Amino acid sequence: MPPMDFEDLIIERRDHVAVITFNRPEKLNAFRNSTNLELLRALSEIDADEAVHAVIITGKGKSFCTGHDLNEPPQAPAVRISRHSSGRKYLEICEALLHLRQPIVAAINGWCAAGGLGFALCCDILIASDDAQFYNPQIAYGYPSLPGIGALLYRFTSMANTKDMILARRKVDASTAERMGIVSRVVPKAHLMNEAWDVAAKIAEVPPDIMAMQREMMNRVWLAVSGTELSLISGSHTAVAGHSLPDWQEKEADWKSTTARDVAAK
Questions:
Q1: Into which CATH architecture does domain 9-265 fall?
Q2: In this structure, which long-range contacts are made by residues 221-229, counting pairs with CB atoms below 8 Å and at least 24 apart in sequence?
Q3: Mean of the per-residue pLDDT values for the chain?
Q4: What is the DSSP string of 171-223?
Q5: Contact (CB, 8 A) for 102 and 176
Q6: How far is it, in rounded angstroms, from Cα 184 to Cα 187?
Q7: Distance CA 26, CA 55 (A)
Q8: What pLDDT, in 10s, does the model give residues 219-250?
């Protein structure tokens, strides 16, 4: 696989494992529209690379990913209702993650919130550092959480926990996320990437075509049973309206600035 030149992502490859790192630590790795386009291109290139047998996704600095960057100027109304809207591109990424040929390990450090939580839930094995925090705050900003996030969360945990996190906006720490079944293991922060590499290396030992078939069988059956595929389709339409409410950007931007101060103080 030739080197990929990105601004918002770092892409590395070693020993049949590709690592995608969100590279906006000063923004808590919030993604912008250009990040979405980079991530779609990276996933397409990785999926086509037969030398890559497993993928790790993580975030640089003190956060995994906190969702959309509200400091980015809003898209024009005509764009928001088109296939180029940020919401629809986000859902395209979720589908690309879920249908990627290679299994994906999410190495979750710090905040994993909103759209970042959705990205993590599209991965196969979620490993959290002991400082990880999981949060889905959108409903407080005036629009419903994307249906796909709720359906994905329900795949990992119970209906009760899913409603608690979406309706009551419960913040979940790493140990609680492990008890709830959202992550499969919690490790000290300093050991997070070593653990992710160990898991990815075990995946990479299996012939990639066999592993791809195994992943496809599990995801297609489980997604169909849980209704996640239908939720992602409806989510591509729901996403159009959410970011247009006037107070949403101000409220989420305030949460992110507050969170950034809290993270910096640690």
A1: Alpha-Beta Complex (3.90)
A2: 222/155, 223/98, 223/155, 226/151, 226/154, 226/155, 227/151, 228/98, 228/148, 228/151, 228/152, 228/155
A3: 84
A4: -EEHHHHHHHTS-SEEE-GGGHHHHHHHHHHHHHHS-HHHHHHHHHHHHHHHH
A5: no
A6: 10
A7: 24
A8: 877 776 555 555 554 444 444 444 445 555 56
Q: What is the pTM of this model?
A: 0.84
pLDDT, residue 72, reads 66
Residue at token pair 């497993």: 54
Tokens of 76: 């024009």
Phi, psi of 225 (to 5 degrees): -65, -40
**Residue type at 82 in one-letter notation:** S
For 58-108, how does the pLDDT look when each residue is reduced to its tens digit (9 = 90+)?
Answer: 999 999 999 888 776 565 555 455 455 666 788 889 889 999 999 999 999
Q: Which residue carries 């529209």 as its tokens?
A: 33
